[in-house]
Fold this protein.
Amino acid sequence: MPNGHLVSRASDYIIYSVEAKNIDAVVETFGPSTKLGAIVGGQTSCKAPEITAFEKHLPKDVSIVSCHSLHGPGVDPRGQPLVLIRHRASDADFAFVERALSCLNSKHVYLTRQQHDRITADTQAVTHAAFLSMGAAWSANNQFPWESPRYIGGIENVKINVTLRIYANKWHVYAGLAILNPDAQKQIKQYAESVTELFKLMLAGQREEFSNRIHAAGKAVFKDDRGKDLLLRDEVLDRFSLGTIPEKRLKNNHLSLLAMVDCWWKLGIVPYDHMICSTPLFRMWLGITEYLFRNPALLEECIDTAITDNTFRADDLEFTFAARDWSSRVSLGHFDGYREKFEQIQNYFAPRFPEATRLGNEMIKTILEKTRED
C-alpha cells in the first residue's frame, strides 16, 4: 500500500507496532481512516498512552483489543505470557483476536490497561534499570567484565550476558516503558535510592545497620517457602561464560542484587505475585536474587565483603552513579538524554554483541526448560 490510510481502510484487524512515545501521533494520523467495524490494537509496553490515543482518535464503531508479548524477539513465544486487553470489543471480536494470536502458542493473560502497566513496571522497569546501570558502570571504568577474574561464575554470567543482550536492542524498547509508565518511574527512583543508601552504609562500615536492613528486606520478600529455585545454580551456568573461568572465584558484594530486594521491600512488592506475567529476563533476575538470599552462607559472605573488602569499590561507585543518572533521566522524561546515554554504552560493547546474544539465547532457553521441569 502507498500509505497507512489505505492500509487502515482495507484492514479488518490492525495492530499498531510503534514506539510508545510516537503512538499518539501515528494513531492521530491514520486512526480516522480505520475501516468501519474493524478491530484495532497495539503492542507497546506501556498501555496508558496507547489506549488514550485509541480513545481519542479512533471512530466510535471500532473495537479496541490490545496485546503485549512479555518476552524479547529472540525468545520462543510458545508458553510465554501474552497479555490481552479487552478495552472495547464484542465477544465475537475478542474471540477473533484470540484466534488470530493463537498461532504464537503463547499463554494468554487477561488484564486491564491499569493492571498491565502496574505489573509491567513491577516485573520489567527495575530489572532493566539494574542491567542498564551495570553496563554504564563497566563502560565508565573502561572495563569488559568477562576479561576480569572479578566477574566469574553463574550469577556473574547472568549479569554480563543479560546486560549485553539489553544493550544489543533498540533504546526505545526500554525508554518507553520507563518514561511513560508512572509506576515504572517510581520504582526506578526507589531502586536508585536503595543502591545509594546501601552504598553509603558500606562506605561508613556500618555492618550492623547494613546487615539488619538486608535481612529485613530478605525476610519480607522471601518470607514463604517457595519450593525450588527458579534459576539454575552457579556451577550449571558456568558454561555460559564469555571469558575463561579461573580456578578461584573472587568474592562479590552483589550490590545490584541486594538493592533489588531492598527496593521490593520498600515498595511492598512481592515479585512472585506477578510470575504469570513475568518476562524471561525477570525470571532470571529473580532467580539469581532468590539464590543469593536463600543461601545463608553466600548472603553473609556478601554482607562481609560489602563492609570489609574494597575490591569492588570503584565498580560500586560507578554503579551507584549510573543508577542515579538513569533515574534522573527517566524522572525528567528526557527521551533524547536516555537515547544518548544508551547508544554511547551500546557502541562500547557492540563488538561482543553477536557472541553475547548467542550465549544469552542459550542461557534463557536452558533456564526456561529448567523452570518448566521444576
Q: What stands out?
A: Residues 80 and 321 are 35 Å apart (CA to CA). Strands lie at 13-16, 39-42, 63-69, 81-88, 107-110. The longest helix spans residues 113-140.
